[in-house]
Amino acid sequence: MTPHERSLDLTGTATASARARETAAAFLAESVRRRGRPASPAASDAVLLVASELVTNAVRHAPGPCTLRLTAHEEAVVVEVTDTNPAPPEPRAPDITGRQGGWGWKLVTRLADDVRVLPGPDGGKTVSTRLPW
């Protein structure tokens, strides 16, 4: 299978995470059609969650726009988000009250087979994850 790709430029607003989930869902549906076999519900849910969490983190911790990139390969989906903050994500203690977050990065690193933080263009960074189908 030739890799299937999609990219979405997002503003740093509260609607960015919802747009990321919608784009990822449409991307997965198209990738399944191209692939000829369905992804497991757990794999699809993981891709949606990672895309949403990475965009949420970019909006919360980096000023300005971010870019979501999705690439489907035969056995994996790569989810990447580029933002304007050069600082790598830092794990923090989750807030069990739900007010302060702290769960997103833990979920991302738990769900993905591979997580990398790479220097991005213009001084920002790209967080790249690989999730199995």
Automatic annotation (TrEMBL):
Q: Which GO terms describe its molecular function?
A: protein serine/threonine kinase activity
Q: What is the lineage of its organism?
A: Bacteria, Bacillati, Actinomycetota, Actinomycetes, Kitasatosporales
**Protein name, entry field:** Histidine kinase/HSP90-like ATPase domain-containing protein
Known InterPro entries for this protein?
Anti-sigma-factor_SerPK (IPR050267), HATPase_C_sf (IPR036890), HATPase_dom (IPR003594)
Keyword list, A-Z: Kinase, Serine/threonine-protein kinase, Transferase
Q: Where is the Histidine kinase/HSP90-like ATPase domain?
A: 19-127
Q: Which Gene3D superfamilies match?
A: Histidine kinase-like ATPase, C-terminal domain
